[in-house]
């Protein structure tokens, strides 16, 4: 009986000691948690792979709740760039313009374009094959919400007679409203429209700040041609040097010279660069049909005179017409070709 009581007392004493140790451990843990809250937050189970990691690091289990997203400070405004809308005949040009537009936006400080491939991946469940080529604010808002974009840029390119129209629009989907729009009528080769994208992207995204962006134009052409820039005569070739400090974007260039076809074209001035333009004027006579050219009739006249001279020479050789009159045909006599024998 005594031994049993001693055993119970000893067991009870050991339990009290264990309880004290447990309380002490809890106190120390709470002290550490209050002293270093940042470390306790870092210990939150999280994995990009979608797995929850046990704080002890001994076991892992699949997360069944929504994955936690961590967002640091925002350094770039996300811009969704939609496909440039066009007719079937201009699809290749539209794709090229879209690609360059996305690249130019990403090159600007503070902006990052959401690429076409990324948009397709993000919006694949929205049947966006048609949405990606839209050109109105309502459509832009729908895409911006799905892509979590701050801005949306859309545009179009169309061929009208001998010119192309190029338009790009910047929208704020949170309002929603159009913030800026740039329109260009291009009258030169369609391939040159790719050069338009860089300056007009700056005008679209930077607004009034882009009005201070300048570039130069260097002209190479034959001497003696009058030069008109944006309808104003600026001199005669050769110019003293490049035309300095032109606003970036499209400019109209015209060269005229007597006897040559007037050359009219659109050129693009890029920010901080010198655009070199070479113009070869075409001789008017080179475009005329052969019988419309003055030199053709000159050669014809010389040929006719040569033929006439040859006829006169032939007549002089046969009849001696250049020195004596020709004999009467009735008095002509001929000698026998065979010799006559004398008896």
Which SSEs are present, and which pair or pack?
Blueprint: H1 2-35, H2 37-42, E1 51-53, E2 60-62, E3 77-81, E4 85-86, H3 91-107, E5 111-114, H4 116-122, H5 137-147, E6 151-160, E7 163-172, E8 177-186, H6 197-206, E9 214-220, E10 226-229, E11 232-236, E12 243-247, E13 249-256, E14 263-269, E15 274-278, H7 294-319
Parallel strand pairs: 3-5, 3-6, 4-6, 9-15
Antiparallel strand pairs: 1-2, 6-7, 7-8, 9-12, 10-11, 10-13, 13-14
Helix pairs in contact: 3-6
Notes on the structure:
This protein is of the alpha/beta class and 343 residues long. Among the domains are: 77-212, TolB, N-terminal domain (Rossmann fold, 3-Layer(aba) Sandwich), CATH 3.40.50; 214-285, Sandwich (Immunoglobulin-like). Helix content is 32%, strand content 26%. The chain contains seven helices and 15 strands. Strands 3, 4, 5, 6, 7 and 8 form a six-stranded mixed beta sheet that branches. Strand 6 (151-160) and strand 7 form a beta hairpin. Helix 3 packs across helix 6 (197-206). The chain is elongated.
Distance N to C terminus: 201 Å
Going by CATH, the architecture of the domain at 77-212 would be 3-Layer(aba) Sandwich
Helix content: 25-40%
Relevant CATH superfamily of the domain at 77-212: TolB, N-terminal domain
Main sheet summary: 6 strands, mixed
Low-confidence segments: 35-70, 329-343
> Any idea what the radius of gyration is?
45 Å
The CATH topology assignment of the domain at 77-212 is: Rossmann fold
The tally of strands reads 15
CATH top level of the domain at 77-212 is Alpha Beta
Oligomer: single chain
Structural class: alpha/beta
Discrete helix count: 7
Q: Helices and strands, in N-to-C order? A: HHEEEEHEHHEEEHEEEEEEEH
């Amino acid at each position: 009986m005594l031994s049993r009581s001693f055993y119970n007392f000893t067991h009870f004493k050991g339990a009290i000691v264990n309880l004290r140790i447990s309380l002490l451990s809890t106190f120390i843990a709470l002290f550490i948690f209050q002293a270093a809250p940042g470390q306790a937050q870092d210990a939150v189970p999280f994995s990009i792979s979608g797995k929850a990691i046990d704080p002890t690091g001994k076991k892992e289990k699949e997360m069944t709740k929504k994955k936690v997203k961590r967002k640091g400070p925002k350094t770039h405004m996300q811009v969704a760039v939609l496909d440039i809308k066009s007719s079937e005949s201009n699809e290749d040009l539209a794709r090229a313009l879209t690609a360059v537009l996305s690249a130019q936006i990403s090159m600007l400080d503070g902006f990052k374009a959401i690429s076409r491939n990324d948009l397709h991946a993000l919006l694949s469940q929205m049947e966006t094959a048609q949405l990606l080529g839209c050109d109105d604010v309502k459509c832009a808002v729908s895409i911006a919400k799905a892509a979590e974009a701050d801005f949306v840029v859309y545009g179009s390119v169309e061929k009208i007679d001998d010119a192309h129209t190029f338009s790009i629009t910047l929208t704020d989907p949170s309002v929603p409203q159009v913030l800026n729009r740039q329109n260009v009528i291009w009258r030169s080769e369609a391939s040159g429209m790719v050069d338009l994208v860089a300056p007009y992207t700056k005008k679209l995204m930077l607004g009034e700040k882009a009005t201070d962006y300048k570039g130069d134009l260097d002209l190479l052409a034959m001497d003696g041609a009058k030069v008109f820039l944006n309808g104003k005569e600026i001199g005669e070739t050769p110019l003293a040097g490049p035309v300095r400090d032109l606003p970036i974007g499209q400019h109209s260039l015209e060269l005229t010279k007597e006897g040559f076809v007037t050359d009219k074209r659109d050129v693009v001035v890029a920010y901080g660069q010198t655009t070199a333009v070479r113009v070869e004027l075409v001789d008017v006579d080179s475009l005329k049909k052969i019988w419309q050219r003055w030199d053709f009739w000159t050669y014809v006249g010389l040929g006719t005179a040569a033929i006439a001279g040859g006829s006169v020479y032939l007549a002089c050789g046969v009849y001696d017409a250049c020195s004596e009159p020709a004999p009467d045909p009735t008095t002509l006599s001929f000698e026998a070709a065979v010799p006559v024998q004398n008896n």
